[in-house]
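Q: Joint fold for the lines below.
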Amino acid sequence: MNIQTISTKQLRQELPQVRDQLAKGVEFILIHRSKPIASLTPLSKKLSIKLKDISSIAGGHRFQETLGKVLTPDYLNSIAEKRYE
Amino acid sequence: MSRLFLDANILIYLFDETSTLHKQTIKLLNKEIKKSSELFISHHVLEEFIFIQIKLATITHESDSYNKLREDFKRIAQIPTLSFVEPEENFDFIAGIIDLMERYQILANDAYILAIILQNKNMGLMTYDKKLVKVANKLKIDTPSMSG
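A: Joint structure:
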C-alpha cells in the first residue's frame, strides 16, 4: 500500500522527495516524538473520496458497438495474451 | 469493509459505454464504494489495460485514441479509495509467480495478480475472468459475485 510513515525531522530534510512522492499518490503519516500527529494525503486522493457515484466518470468509448461483437472477458483475454505471442 | 484488487477487464467495461457489462460494472463498483471498500490496482494491470485499450482503438479505428486514454487515466485517478499495490521487490516473489504459473497453468499476468493479492492480507479480487476466479478460489482468495 502507498502509505509511508515519516518523522517531522525527515519531512524538513527531505521535503523535495516527499513532494515528488505525494505527486505519485503516496500518502504519509507524520510522526513526532514517536507518535502519529497528522496525515499527508495527495489532493487528487482527497477529491476522489468525494465521488460517490462511479457513473459520473464512466463511459467514453464505444468499442463493442463499433466492433459489432460482444466484448467478452475471453475476447479481452485473447487481446491481452497477444503480448506473449 | 472489503479490500479488492481490480482486474483490467473491470476498467475496460467501466469505460466502454456500449459494452454488455458496462452498467453491471458501474453497479458493482458503486456497491463497493458505498461499502467504503478499499480498491487496489497495480502498474502491471494498468499496462494490460493500456495494451487492450490501444488494440481495441486500433481495431475500431477510434479517433484521438491516445488523448482518450489520457482521459481514462484522469478518471481512474478519481475512483474513490483506489490505491496502488505493487509486488514485493525480491526474487522470492518471482519464484512464487513461476510456481503459480506451473501449478495452475496460468500466464504470468494472471500469476502476478494472484501473487500480489496473496502478499496482502484480506484482499479479494474483482474480475470477470472466470478462469482466474476459479484459480483464485482454489487459493482461498475472495471473489465477489459479478452477477450484479
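Q: Anything notable?
A: Chain A has a mean pLDDT of 87. Chain A has two domains: 3-40, 54-83.
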